[in-house]
Amino acid sequence: MFLAGFGLYMAYGAGMVALHPSFIYPFAQGEWPLPLTYEAVPLPDREPARLRVAMGDGPAVLYFMGNAGSIGLFGTSLEQHRRAGRTVAALEYRGGGGLTGWPSEKLLKEDALAAYDWLDAQTDQPIVVHGYSLGSGLALHVAAERPVAGVILDAPFARLCELMARASALPACWLPVQRWDSLALVNQVTAPVLIQHGGKDALIPPEQGERLAKALQTNGEQVEFHLLPKADHLDITSDPEWGQAVEAFLR
């Protein structure tokens, strides 16, 4: 009986390893519209990935969305920056929002660095990286590999594989999966960081954001952690305190 149960568990584990990308990247295939002020810009040598760009006179913000897959769903965050006069460049992920291709941790992180390099060539202004949920891993990756003026993280994870383990009852961080380990990047980040997390977030519990903040602080970085008690994972940017904290941080 034990051997039969163990065999079923192993088969389940193998199946989850094979299927796990579909859970990390459940990208919507439809394209939700953005205002015409956001120009679609192909990312050189990284097709099919592309940027949505609105030029401004202030600092530049490189934005990385969550795993909904269509940048039009994140207009609240983009408009927060555009209305303040900042240049906004948002990465559209391969495999979602009407784009072809297959996403992976490796490819998305390469796309994110290419997006920074493109934006850096377009502006003399300082660049801030801003990431939500899955995009927090990309924002931290860029901050670890490129010079940035600041890092804004909304509902970030410390290690995505831990959330996978919780959901699957498997030791995901020890399996051959895409781990998305943000904790492994903290000693390479040298910019001020703002982390905001919804107190009612059940998808990525606020404890994940708190652990990430403490790890960055231990590394000596200037870190602000704001818990928004009434917000959950999906409505964090609708909380008035979210926008106020973003503006105060960037000032």
Automatic annotation (TrEMBL):
Transmembrane segments: none
Signal peptide location: none
One Pfam family hit: DLH
Domain Dienelactone hydrolase: 103-233
Molecular function in Gene Ontology: hydrolase activity
Alphabetical list of InterPro entries matching this protein: AB_hydrolase_fold, Dienelactn_hydro
Protein name (record): Dienelactone hydrolase domain-containing protein
Organism: Neogemmobacter tilapiae
